[in-house]
Amino acid sequence: MTNEEVRKLATLARLSLSDAECETYAKDFQGILAYVAQLEQIKGKVADGHTAISGTVKSDDTSSFQARRELVAQFPESQGDELRVPTVLSYGN
Amino acid sequence: MAINLSELTIATAREAMIRGDFTATELLNAYRAEIAQKNPDLNAYLEVFDDVPENLDEIGRNASLPLGGIPFAIKDNILIHGHHASASSKILEPYIAPYDATVIEKLRAAGAVFLGRTNMDEFAMGSSTENSAYGRTKNPLDTARVPGGSSGGSAAAVAMNGALAALGTDTGGSIRQPASFCGLVGMYPTFGSVSRSGLIAMGSSLDQAGPLAKTVDDVFLIHNLIKGHDPRDGRSITPDKRVATVVSEKRIGVPKGILDLDGIDPAVKENFLQSLETMKKQGYEIVDVDMPHLSAGLAVYYVIMPAEVSTNLARFDGVRYGARKGTDDLWQMYEASRGMGFGPETRRRVLLGTYVLSSGYYDAYFESARRVRAAIVQDFKEAFKTVQAIATPTTPTGAFRAGEKSDPLSMYLADLFTVPANLAGVPAISIPSGVDQDGMPLGFHLMAPWFAEETLHTIGKAFEQGA
After folding, report:
1. Which of B174, B193, B430, B433 is flagged as catalytic?
2. Nearest CA to B438 among B401, B395, B406?
3. Is the ipTM of this complex over 0.90?
């Protein structure tokens, strides 16, 4: 893997990385990906099946949360009861 | 009176409090004194709480409360209402839990007291508790060595007599491996048996909370109190499906070739063979079982887990909670909050997960891993047609020295024996089995069929009594 590929992954994952970090991770990933490459060989020889016990599907209902005020208190920035976020859409100038 | 903390178990502490030998306040103060003395060096606790239930001594005397007055250490990724929960990450440094995790609610209802929150690898990613944003935890048995991870703080807290029991979480061995490194019993329960509501998620097809304690009985006492269906956890299994199928013969399987894998310390092999002898003396037949895909478990884990990590950690973006960094530009705020908030190992796994899930590589990595995982599940199903449990060592080596494993892959190999249970979702326990050439503890690792925790309890007790 190249430094540029790591840089692209960092953009996809919304992470700021230094050039030195890109280089370190590129090197780490060579080793890790070489190790997990054995899976592609094994895949061809196994029957497909289920991986785990399945859970239950919840109905898509809303319910009120008792500790609402405490959740609001966790906002990094707020105005009254509302969460303050940077501008998502702008209308040009 | 002076309380001998090193000899105490939950059972003996409960008897003593009910009898009036000491009060719950005296017990709590004895642990707090121990923590005050040892924690500055060992760093097992990130924070020691100063709040106590009002009627603590009454709780301690109340014979109907199974954990009345029992002091617990809680891993920093489990929410306790009104307390910080940071998962040992900078990005959650300001976060205060707005509610109790279900496991905390249940422990509280049983009378437990919470001493504090314990150090861990950031977001539970690591095998040594060296990846914490708040400094490493030292192994109380040899401070130059690691306590294991990621629940290393919880294990060290119990091993240093800084708590009678602890809760950890286990995604690939994070309860069992530190239990083994610190000479404790630790259990990963059947996936879906214990609610994950109020746990900070890492790998959502793998994560479970479980106990670390000094005896097999203590571990199952805790497990039986925290398990149960919870509608707040989408993968929690309903009571009608909690049925175990276990063969009646007292037979334990050892996966063929398991001791021939690379990197296993000869002392671990020797100790494991002795453990099998102990089981034979306790009336168990030991047989080989064919589990051809087990050795690929670690490779499967290091695809599935980072994929789930990168998905779960997408929620930490500086928007709704945690630390917000950067300017008022949205994109820059995301990158800065995540870039500054996540430590090196967390970033490594988020990037790796992003890679294996990206469209060009999905088939090569994630889809391959998913299929081999299914083959591993099939291996377990076949094995459990003839044996009650499967035995391996818990770890390939005893506790290693801090800083010794600088290459990530060599650190990942510490999870070799523990990850298959998480991949299949079967319960597994580590029980102390002796020491290596440096005098560090080793563990005997047993895995049982889905929901056969009682089988693990029976076999585990037989091992404990025979060892």
Report:
1. B174
2. B401
3. yes
